Amino acid sequence: IVVTGSNDHLWKMWALPDGNIIMTGEGHTDWLSGCCFHPSGSQLVTSSGDTTVRIWDCSKRGCILTLEGHAHAVWDCSWHSCGDFVASASMDNTSKIWDVNSERCRYTMCGHKDSVNSIEFLPFSSTVLTSSADKTLSLWDARTVSRLF
């Protein structure tokens, strides 16, 4: 399966190797910057220049949740291995940990001096790795919102 974005704010999920379109998503109002499958494969999270993160249900073929709270474009998104949390990295110099069950931002991580360009959870851990345009990498403890390194 391959997910691609386009300038018309649509994304498409393609099956390999036959190239058939499995699902199309519409809802973001600006360019798509990132996507990541839920650990079970049943959902997809996307990030966008429209400052939002959206969660899509593959069986319902639609958006089930829009997460709002970043002040600028969101560059990247990632699922925690338990499937209950999503992380986002933004041009507003912050990254956020979202609780999908309560549909709210649980933590905002501040400390980078420029855009946070990517974010990833260490599998089966509360450790988060961010990379920034300030030319640094940071390790965070998502439970305490403290920078580890």
Mean pLDDT equals 88
CATH topology: Methylamine Dehydrogenase, Chain H
Biggest β-sheet: strands ordered side by side in the sheet: 4-5-6-7
**Gap between N and C termini, in Å?**
35 Å
**Gyration radius from CA atoms, angstroms:** 15 Å
Q: Would you identify the CATH architecture?
A: 7 Propeller
The count of DSSP E runs of length 2 or more, i.e. the number of strands, is 15
Characterise the protein shown here.
This protein is mostly beta strands. The protein has one domain (2-141): Methylamine Dehydrogenase, Chain H (7 Propeller). The protein has strands at 2-5, 10-14, 21-26, 32-37, 43-48, 52-57, 62-68, 74-79, 85-90, 94-99, 104-110, 116-121, 127-132, 137-141, 146-147. It has a 4-stranded antiparallel beta sheet, with no helix packed on it. Strands 8-9-10-11 form a 4-stranded antiparallel beta sheet, with no helix packed on it.
Layout of secondary structure:
Elements (H helix, E strand, L loop, with lengths): L1 E4 L4 E5 L6 E6 L5 E6 L5 E6 L3 E6 L4 E7 L5 E6 L5 E6 L3 E6 L4 E7 L5 E6 L5 E6 L4 E5 L4 E2 L2
Antiparallel strand pairs: 1-2, 2-3, 4-5, 5-6, 6-7, 8-9, 9-10, 10-11, 12-13, 13-14, 14-15
Task: For the structure shown, list the relevant keywords.
149 residues; mainly beta; Methylamine Dehydrogenase, Chain H; four-stranded antiparallel beta sheet
Compact overview of the structure:
With 149 residues, the protein is mainly β. 0% of the residues lie in helices and 56% in strands. The strands form four sheets. Strands 4-5-6-7 form a four-stranded antiparallel beta sheet, with no helix packed on it.
